[in-house]
Amino acid sequence: GQNIDQPTEMTATEGAIVQINCTYQTSGFNGLFWYQQHAGEAPTFLSYNVLDGLEEKGRFSSFLSRSKGYSYLLLKELQMKDSASYLCAVRDPNNNAGNMLTFGGGTRLMVKP
Amino acid sequence: DVKVTQSSRYLVKRTGEKVFLECVQDMDHENMFWYRQDPGLGLRLIYFSYDVKMKEKGDIPEGYSVSREKKERFSLILESASTNQTSMYLCASIPSGLVVNYGYTFGSGTRLTVV
């Protein structure tokens, strides 16, 4: 089976740093994605990791450890507009459709002044 | 430059009605998906299609059907709408092949309310 876990909710202060964790157990692995989703809107792509290590993209970074089945999304210099849900998704090549993603339940981040 | 278009942003339908949700993509993607998203339950896969006229059940296909007559269009059909199908419906697409580093492209979503 496939299981992707992430915290349900997190709260952080404007200007701070927050780390959102994601652990996964899948039969196969070919990449991990992070999406941002504002309330009532569609998810938008943030980052992609397929090799171990850190990928940095402006204020956002994403880390992957394949041996531990673990990833995190790091948001620096938080802004109020970062209040959103963050979805972790894994691509498992053993799925019926090779490019199907399996999603975690999402982490709702609230940024407070 | 909209790439995945869902026909309606908001929809209100009556119980028992047949409902069509349309999704069109202009990126020539082989794979298309329909999800529903409910608070606390995340994204749940209803149906997907990896080619024209091909369809596969996802995790929660009951009460739904799909149609893919053309590569660019993937329709979700609620045969007889019920109140428990009130939800946000998201369409997504992705090309075949494993060298895809941006994941799905999502439509803007359709918030369906069944009364």
Q: Spell the H/E element sequence of chain B.
A: EEEEEEEEEEE
Shape of chain A: globular
Structural class of chain A: mainly beta
Mean pLDDT of chain B: 92
| Quaternary structure annotation | heterodimer
Show unreliable segments of chain B: none
Cα Rg of chain A: 14 Å
Distance from first to last alpha carbon of chain A: 41 Å
Low-confidence stretches of chain A: none
**Helix proportion of chain A:** under 10%
Number of helices of chain B: 0
**Major sheet description of chain B:** 7 strands, mixed
Strand content of chain B: over 45%
Give a written overview of the molecule:
The complex is a heterodimer of chains A (113) and B (115). By secondary structure, chain A is mainly beta. Helix content of chain A is 0%, strand content 55%. The mean pLDDT of chain A is 92. In chain B, strands 2, 4, 5, 6, 9, 10 and 11 form a 7-stranded mixed β-sheet that branches. Chain B has a 4-stranded antiparallel β-sheet with strand order 1-3-8-7, with no helix packed on it. Helices cover 0% and strands 52% of the residues of chain B. Chain B is globular and about 40 Å long. With 115 residues, chain B is mostly beta strands. The termini of chain B are far apart. Chain B has no helices and 11 strands. Chains A and B meet through strand 5 and strand 9 of A and strand 5 and strand 9 of B.
TL;DR?
The complex is a heterodimer of chains A (113) and B (115). Chain A is mostly beta strands.
Furnish the topology, listing elements before pairings.
The complex is a heterodimer of chains A (113) and B (115).
Chain A: E1 3-5, E2 9-13, E3 18-25, E4 32-37, E5 44-49, E6 53-57, E7 60-65, E8 70-75, E9 84-91, E10 101-103, E11 107-112
Parallel strand pairs in A: 2-11
Antiparallel strand pairs in A: 1-3, 3-8, 4-5, 4-9, 6-7, 7-8, 9-10, 9-11
Chain B: E1 4-6, E2 10-13, E3 19-25, E4 31-38, E5 42-49, E6 56-57, E7 64-70, E8 73-78, E9 87-94, E10 105-106, E11 110-114
Parallel strand pairs in B: 2-11
Antiparallel strand pairs in B: 1-3, 3-8, 4-5, 4-9, 5-6, 7-8, 9-10, 9-11
